[in-house]
Amino acid sequence: IVTGATMMIRAETARALLPIPDLWIHDEWLAFAATALGRPGVPVPEALISYRRHGGQALGLPLGLPARIRKVLRGDDPPVDTVFRKQADARALLLPLLPPGSANAAAWEARITHLRFRAAMYRRPALARWPWIAIEALRGRYHRYSRNWLSIGRDLFAPARRPADKGANDR
């Protein structure tokens, strides 16, 4: 877990990662992109700040599994197609910075394929998704590229969504 208030970044890494893409939160982008480029942070074992969690916060860790489940069932969770677009944008920005033949590039392509597959499923009613979810689970892609059972549960029970490019008047 990386929060912006606890982050230090080398100037040359910051220059390579700026500007921050539209869909990304600053600390999320910097931590993700630095790690993708093979420049991960160094964890500090002791707490340097206090992080207060509360039910009304806009960002941050949810307050336990029941709160997370309620968020998914209400449809308040970020749509999978947004996650897919963020990863695709990151790939476009960071792939040119990776060395040729990088294992990170191949893994990224596989993750983006999995997220594209998941995003397309949300156009179907929840009960119609289960065969597609089973195929992805049996291929091990939920385990490798998502959050395993949490993502499977989300894909099984979250409400259907229209594609992100539809306007509010199309609903």
What attributes characterize this protein structure?
171 residues; disordered C terminus; 50% helix; globular; mainly alpha; 8 helices
Write the layout of secondary structure elements.
Elements: H1 11-17, H2 26-36, H3 65-74, H4 80-94, H5 103-121, H6 130-138, H7 141-145, H8 149-157
Helix pairs in contact: 4-5
What does this structure look like?
- The C terminus is likely disordered.
- The radius of gyration is 18 Å and the shape is globular.
- The chain has 171 residues and is an all-alpha fold.
- The N and C termini lie far apart (36 Å).
- It contains 8 helices and no strands.
Please provide a brief summary of the model.
This protein has helices at residues 11-17, 26-36, 65-74, 80-94, 103-121, 130-138, 141-145, 149-157. The protein is mainly alpha-helical.
Structure summary, number of beta strands: 0
Rg measurement, Å = 18 Å
Tell me the span between the first and last alpha carbons: 36 Å
Q: Biggest β-sheet: count, sense, barrel?
A: none
Structural class: mainly alpha
The best one-word shape is globular
H/E topology pattern: HHHHHHHH
How many DSSP helices? 8
